[in-house]
Write the structure tokens for this entry.
Amino acid sequence: MIAYLIRRILYALPILIGVNLLTFTLFFVVNTPDDMARIQLGIKRVTPEAIERWKQQHGYDKPLLFNAGAEGAKKLSDTIFFEKSASMFVLDFGYSDDGRSISREISTRMWPSLVIALPAFFIGLMVSITFALLITLFRATALDATAVAICVVLMSISMLFYIIAGQFVASKLWHWVPISGYAGGLDGIKFVLLPVLIGVVGGIGASSRWYRTIFLEEIGRDYVRTARAKGLSELRVLFRHVLKNAMIPILTGVVVVIPLLFMGSLLTESFFGIPGLGSYTIDAIQAQDFGVVRAMVFLGSVLYIVGLILTDISYTVVDPRVRLQ
């Protein structure tokens, strides 16, 4: 197990370097440091002196990838890429263009994101699996066909529609919850109810249909016929045997997503005014803040790799036959 984890971490390093380099290249293909200075200064006619001064203040006055004027190792280290990217491997994300610490912003904003994402994820997971098991119980009936049709309709509707419709009906029409905003503590419950509900409803269609497919595949196995032959009820067969043996494919999709919940939801946080990492990323993209965008892309890559490793480890928990070498 330890050797496996070490190998996966070593495999992840070149992937992270590649993601970092690709993000850096794409960003500077669109905007040069001079363009970034003009955007941040917010002046139509900016003097060359003002541009150079902004670049020096923010560390963009050096070559991008290779410093031909430097000597030895400084040809690579005395560059924008090395100074802005190397520190991220120790989770030091530096500062945004407005001078704020990116690491501090992430540590502050991750909690609103988790308050929305975690309940929506776990409640949605339980509802989807239960719904899929019930559909499987009534398979090949009119109820099954109707449920599948409902799932297709739900998964075909954009999340944007759920957000706008939910705000209009629950907030503007019925005045049950605030239309947007966020507060800490118990006062924040009224602000998170609607985003969590929309997150659950928006994911039921696709998740339930996928779980139904998994359960239908398991329902035809030999162990299911054996369990029925022993006189077990259909509900007991589904919830005790089928669900247990379907955990590996379910974990494949579930465990990978858990670390990414940290990143928040771009649409939900933006429309509901939640100061999480999703809205932080959107604001950085609109402001052309390279430091924040680069940090969020890198952090997302790290969390995704962690999710893949956790998925492999979880296999050994639900299936003792699986051993990591």
About this structure: The first helix runs from residue 2 to 30.
